[in-house]
Design brief:
There is one protein chain. With 382 residues, the chain is an alpha+beta fold. The protein folds into three domains: 140 residues, Rossmann fold, CATH 3.40.50.20; 69 residues, Dna Ligase, domain 1 (2-Layer Sandwich), CATH 3.30.1490.20; 133 residues, D-amino Acid Aminotransferase, Chain A, domain 1. Helix 7 runs antiparallel to helix 9. The chain is globular.
Length: 382
């Protein structure tokens, strides 16, 4: 095979490998790769080459499996040496790339060369690599389809403060939310009418503006608790969000969206989690109101990509948005195995005329590794 720029491909012992100046690319290719395609394979997807980023995540592995089952050839790009997709039979090749956080330019260069060398049709970013891919969306999009929204839109929705402002501007009911980034803003907020209103409605939830898995969340139910939290949290170098506490049931949604049209959707209740954060057990929740909420937001935003929401269902049945995750989430596990899910990702024209793909009613998912780790440490909550 021809050598191209920094990447080179060799074949040894039934495996393919490539190397770059910054690392190596190892293949999960098996000689019987093509024979593993399931009955979910469709002619429209057979042979399409898809590049996934974030191969370390269970959600990325799930996506690789469902794409391979539909007849796609999956290539994974990951900056860590050992990751889940590297040993999966659903992944034809696994390429190690530079860390996007440490060297964004080298990361984009590596993706561009993989796309050219492998003849990639579609790039689907998962995990935090999403934002770095979006930063090079125009450049990479000249070579293949890139399934992500523009960077500015992603950043606006990823921010817990800006997302709430956006939802309010679009006409949704939203909780009182205040962004706090300086020590003096903590003091001002402690004596503000907004804080008094939050206390009267049940309390104030404090959380980093950008975080995952409910990390570092605090609840203040008095001014003294807020002052104590501020003395600890206000010394950091990143902004926080103070949000009105909303009582009720937490509903999580995950949608695949093309130009504002939802082509696949899953909802589930957040009932069992590891370390008080991310859910590790999932079962589908038939919730028309949550689906309608997600569909309306996606349409008004003309969003393209993967879109997830944390909503609170109040006693009267109304929904209040809390956070948005414009990326792959664990909701993908509930959609795996459904006919049409790969088309929902890659062939929006074929799937837009029909109802969104939804989980089977009997679908149940438990993430084994987080469950084991949390169980052994006694930190499983439910």
């Amino acid at each position: 095979m021809q050598r191209r720029s920094r990447w080179r491909f060799t074949r040894r012992s039934g495996r393919a490998g490539c190397s770059a100046a910054t690392g190596s690319c190892y293949s999960g290719h098996r000689p019987d790769f093509r024979s593993e395609r399931s009955i979910l394979s469709t002619d429209g997807l057979r042979g399409k080459r898809v590049l996934l980023t974030g191969g370390r995540a269970p959600a990325a592995l799930e996506m690789a499996r469902l794409l391979a089952a539909a007849g796609c050839e999956v290539i994974a790009a990951e900056s860590t040496r050992h990751h889940l997709c590297r040993v999966s039979r659903s992944v034809k090749r696994s390429c190690r790339v530079p860390s996007p956080a440490a060297d964004p330019a080298a990361f984009a260069d590596a993706l561009e060369e993989i796309i050219a060398q492998e003849g990639i049709h579609s790039l689907i970013p998962t995990c935090e690599e999403l934002f770095f891919v979006a930063a090079s969306r125009e450049r990479l999009g000249s070579q293949c389809a890139v399934f992500t929204a523009p960077l500015a839109q992603l950043q606006r929705l990823h921010s817990k403060a800006e997302f709430i402002r956006t939802a309010g501007r679009l006409g949704f009911n939203v909780p009182m939310t205040v962004r706090i980034s300086k020590p003096e803003e903590w003091r001002d907020f402690a004596h503000s009418s907004s804080f008094r209103d939050m206390l009267s409605s049940g309390g104030c939830v404090l959380k980093p503006e950008y975080s995952r898995f409910a990390a570092k969340v605090r609840i203040a139910t008095s001014r003294q608790e807020l002052v104590e939290a501020a003395s600890e949290l206000g010394t950091g170098h990143y902004p926080w969000v103070a949000q009105q506490y909303i009582g009720g049931r937490e509903i999580c949604t995950y949608s695949i969206v093309h130009d504002g049209k939802v082509t696949a959707h899953a909802a589930y209740a957040s009932e069992l989690s590891a370390y008080g954060g991310a859910s590790v057990y999932f079962e589908p929740l038939r919730h028309p109101a949550a689906q309608a909420w997600a569909a309306r937001f996606a349409e008004l935003e003309r969003f393209t990509g993967q879109l997830a929401f944390d909503l609170i269902e109040q006693e009267d049945g109304s929904l209040m948005p809390i956070e948005c995750n414009p990326r792959t989430t664990s909701g993908i596990h509930l959609l795996a195995g459904n006919p049409g899910i790969a088309e929902a990702l890659l062939l929006p024209q074929a799937s837009s005329a029909s109802a969104p793909v939804e989980p089977r009613p009997d679908k149940r998912v438990m993430l084994a590794l987080p469950m084991l780790a949390a169980g052994l440490s006694g930190r499983l909550r439910g």
